[in-house]
């Protein structure tokens, strides 16, 4: 199971989804789908933009859990 920790990183960075949307160039709706774990896939280019905006590594955003 892949867990998306986007909400945790946004809280740590004191950044809103709207601010991230503006920096990354994605709609709030698409970021919300990713944040809520409803996305089926993510492009590497999108992941790179999010990492740049949040100053983090992909592993900070995506986590693999065995449940």
From TrEMBL:
Residues 6-61 form the HTH cro/C1-type domain. InterPro entries: Cro/C1-type_HTH (IPR001387), Lambda_DNA-bd_dom_sf (IPR010982). Gene3D superfamilies: lambda repressor-like DNA-binding domains. PANTHER family: DNA-BINDING PROTEIN, DNA-BINDING PROTEIN-RELATED. This is Helix-turn-helix domain-containing protein. It comes from Companilactobacillus baiquanensis. The lineage of its organism: Bacteria, Bacillati, Bacillota, Bacilli, Lactobacillales.
């Amino acid at each position: 199971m892949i867990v998306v920790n986007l909400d945790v990183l946004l809280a740590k960075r004191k950044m809103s989804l709207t601010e991230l949307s503006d920096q990354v160039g994605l709609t709030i709706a698409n970021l919300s789908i990713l944040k809520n774990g409803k996305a089926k896939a993510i492009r590497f280019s999108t992941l790179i933009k999010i990492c740049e905006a949040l100053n983090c590594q992909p592993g900070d955003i995506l986590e693999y859990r065995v449940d």
